[in-house]
Q: What sequence folds into this?
């Protein structure tokens, strides 16, 4: 026997719109207010509804994404909760979800705002007691207490006299905040007073001063190195917690015998970089906490590269030299710097682990001390330690061994410079040698002639 198959067709729906009251959710009788329904609803039909009043339904086809429903002469009967939704115009229509409700409150000018105060004090320790007083000429009315940003904290009561008291017998941290109160008539719909000015309840905890935090041996650590985070609390026999800024979880905890806790990081990785803070507390239940320490930043650096000059550190004017920066760092970015000259910084992204910065025609301004460093291509980049300095010496026509050399040509093709210490058999130098030899020969003939032509004594 074949089993029956049931097919369900699920109707699509649109997201709920937002609803608001302008200029205010609280209006005096005879005033004006506009209920605005905002959505991506151009070409749709918007329906406004009032809770418990089907006769107050209104609809419109807005040209854009806002449907405005004005009430130009507000009466007590307009008070209440409103919501809106929209639908397509085809048949059958597809409806959006209803908006969250918004309440229109009619406040009579004759009902002034009440006064609010905290007793015995606005500052209370956890576990203590406080009473919120709302004072008004409010016999026969209902008083509402509200906490800013917390709709679940609303409380109401019908006081016998002119003061409504809202006690909090065991204060906790979540009770902290700004409170206000107002009152209303008991008929339907009610008429509300203006809200009181806000009053702030502060939880004044017993606490210890914030600890000091520092990194040993240094805030800058080479990748794979070791560092210790030290937290000094000025109190003995405390529990210490270490946090990393941006991470709500505790990284490490310690209970040292003295007043300082040590949190070692024995093999530093890139993810260890960042800011750290710590705090301490008593070991009792509930604990009494200190404030958080100021943050301290751990900078993780790559190991420094090697730098060298080729073919030599001593180069004649016009000759070529290459500055090489080497590391175990494939796909890194290199930066070459010259000490005391920020304008000579050069960046390079080599394919391997060696970056070469050629100087094809050395001038006197190229002389100086150079260093390089590299960064891993991350966000943010992690830079290595700078290399040791290497000095480029520019010599006027001298070779690396100190022997005099003829002035070299101003420009030489790359790779054709004569190696240091070898004779330079260029055509110009051969011509100079021939001319020198000829000059010496002429000088010798002149001296010989002078010698043989001088007068001689007769024996």
A:
């Amino acid at each position: 026997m074949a089993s029956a198959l049931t097919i369900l067709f699920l109707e699509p729906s649109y997201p709920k719109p937002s609803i608001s009251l302008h200029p205010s959710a609280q209006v005096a009788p005879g005033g004006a207010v506009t209920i605005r329904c905002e959505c991506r609803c151009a070409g749709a039909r918007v329906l406004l509804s009032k809770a418990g009043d089907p006769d107050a339904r209104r609809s419109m086809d807005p040209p854009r994404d806002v449907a405005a429903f004005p009430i130009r002469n507000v009466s007590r009967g307009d008070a209440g909760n409103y919501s809106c939704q929209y639908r397509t115009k085809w048949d059958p229509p597809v409806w959006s979800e209803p908006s969250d409700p918004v309440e229109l409150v009619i406040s009579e000018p004759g009902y002034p705002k009440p006064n609010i105060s905290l007793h015995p004090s606005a500052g209370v320790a956890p576990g203590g007691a406080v009473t919120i007083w709302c004072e008004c000429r409010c016999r026969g009315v209902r008083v509402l207490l509200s906490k800013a940003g917390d709709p679940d904290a609303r409380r109401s009561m019908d006081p016998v006299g002119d003061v409504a008291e809202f006690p909090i017998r065991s204060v906790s941290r979540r009770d902290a905040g700004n409170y206000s109160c107002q009152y209303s008539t008991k008929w339907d719909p009610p008429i509300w007073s203006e809200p009181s000015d806000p009053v702030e309840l502060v939880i004044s905890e017993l606490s210890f001063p914030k600890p000091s935090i520092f990194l040993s041996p240094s805030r800058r650590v080479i990748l794979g190195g070791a560092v210790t985070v030290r937290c000094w609390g000025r109190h003995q026999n405390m529990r210490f917690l270490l946090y990393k800024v941006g991470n709500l979880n505790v990284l490490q905890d310690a209970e040292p015998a003295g007043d300082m806790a040590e949190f070692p990081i024995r093999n530093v990785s890139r993810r260890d970089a960042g800011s750290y803070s710590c705090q301490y507390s008593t070991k009792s239940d509930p604990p009494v906490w200190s404030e958080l320490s100021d943050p301290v930043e751990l900078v993780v650096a790559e190991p420094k590269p090697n730098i060298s000059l080729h073919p030599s550190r001593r180069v004649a004017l016009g000759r070529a030299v290459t500055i090489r920066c080497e590391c175990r760092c494939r796909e890194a970015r290199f930066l070459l710097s010259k000490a005391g000259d920020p304008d000579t910084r050069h960046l390079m992204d080599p394919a391997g682990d060696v970056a070469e910065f050629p100087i094809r025609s050395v001038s006197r301004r190229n002389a100086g001390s150079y260093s390089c460093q590299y960064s891993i291509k991350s966000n943010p980049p992690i830079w290595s330690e700078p290399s040791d300095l290497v000095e480029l010496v520019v010599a006027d026509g001298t070779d690396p061994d100190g022997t005099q050399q003829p002035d070299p040509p101003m420009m030489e093709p790359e790779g054709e410079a004569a190696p240091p210490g070898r004779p330079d058999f260029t055509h110009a130098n051969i011509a100079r040698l021939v001319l020198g030899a000829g000059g010496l020969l002429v000088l010798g003939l002149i001296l010989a002639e002078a010698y043989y032509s001088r007068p001689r004594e007769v024996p």
Notes: Confidence is low (pLDDT under 50) at residues 6-11, 398-430. Residues 18-106 form a domain with the Immunoglobulin-like fold (CATH 2.60.40.10). The longest strand covers residues 368-376. Residues 427-452 form the longest helix (26 residues).
